[in-house]
Amino acid sequence: MKGVFMHRGMRKRLLAVGKFPNTVLGIIQWALNTVELWCGGLGLSVNPEKTGLVAFTRKRKLTGLFEPRLFGKTLQRSTTVKYLGVILDSRLTWKEHIDAKVRKAQNSMLACRRACGAMWDLKPSVVHWLYVAVIRPSVTFASLVWWPSCQTACTKRKLSRVQKSACLGITGAMRTTPTNAMVALICLPTGFGGPE
Description:
There is one protein chain. Helices cover about 45% and strands about 10% of the residues. It has helices at about 20-40, 95-115, 125-140, 145, 155-170, 180-185; strands at about 5, 15, 70, 75, 80-85, 85-90. Helix 2 runs antiparallel to helix 3 (about 125-140), helix 2 (about 95-115) packs parallel to helix 5 and helix 3 (about 125-140) packs antiparallel against helix 5.
């Protein structure tokens, strides 16, 4: 049937594409019925509690839609789903993904500080290496997908905080030191929430 795509990975993914929401849900229900038949023939089962349903649309409200069922249980719609390490929200704004990545980067920087302690200070070259080789790649993972969201001032500010935290750790400068000056001093690449 047209409009249904299956992805085989560690977890199975089902994607239905269409113009009208009820038609798409009908296609999804047909695919779920096919999954039930296949599982029944092999003696397998799928846990409906762990099955997510996200409608990617620009519409504000999706009313009057029926909810697809899997093994007799109604699937509840959610607003986000995590796929291959990227958090997708129903409007594809990437806000939750960026917030999660910034939070993870800040926690990593703090963990490095705690691991060193006050007496065993890391050398600036080691902090620089940790930022460039570990923290920055974890933040920019799959950025090819979510980079349009980086054009907003809020996202630039969040990413700039991560870079400023790294710059302060590398240089040992005061908190009031301008981020742009530290980035230039350390020769970090620009564009990661910093100067363009």
